[in-house]
Structure of Required for respiratory growth protein 7, mitochondrial:
Amino acid sequence: MLFRFCFCFLRCLFYYVLRICNFSTTLMNSYRLLTRKYSSTALIENVGQYLKHCKLKKVNTTSTVFRGTLYEFHVKHLLELKLHGKNMIRCGGSYDNGIDIIGQWDLDPFYQISLKMNNVEHKIHNASLLHLLPGTSTKRPISLSNDIQLVVQCKNTKKRLGAAEVRQLSGILEYHKFNKKRTFMMMVSPHPLTVQGITQLNKSSYPMINLIVSPLKNEMDHYDYDNWEGGSLCSAYLNHAATKVLSGFRMEQQLLQLIK
């Protein structure tokens, strides 16, 4: 209990310092190291490890907590495997401040593919990250591989999410003072947003993407990851801000190729 209290205090302290310093690179790396070392499920980095941990601790696999945590680890794996997420850390829990997964989004593979696509696109929007690449007129160029922050919130619910949940998500982004030009928020759930939810998503000034990842199902051994079915990427919706920032990447077309 004392260990958990000390960790929670340290993590909250880091969140506060990061907020003041606007998530400077040095502090962000320190936060990642701290979270990686002392996460709420210590030393657990993937689905397989989590299930082994649950089997050892005889965790109730029908509980909401188990299903929610399993969904988060699966989403983390999916983002790493299909969307080039890297340095991904699951930090979900009672003191996650609304963030379940945090890491980086390597956009360079998407950019390289976009250069080979023949589709003609309209003029690149002024807000596009492509205007910040080395060789452009910008004074502070960015790296598509290392400078894009990815923040993820998972909602493993049985109903569609609406405007209230999206507003809450926007509030989380404002609270943490993320860089709007270099941060993407992904809201992941098994079901599409309501019409009101989509409207609210498009009102956000932050680049936000709603991913639909189907529910995980298992009628056999719950502790064996191979027995779980579902968890496929079913759809992806980019809000207006994300569409502008990713202008030129042909991201919507590339995401369509990943959807089952």
Notes: DSSP finds nine helices and eight strands in the chain.
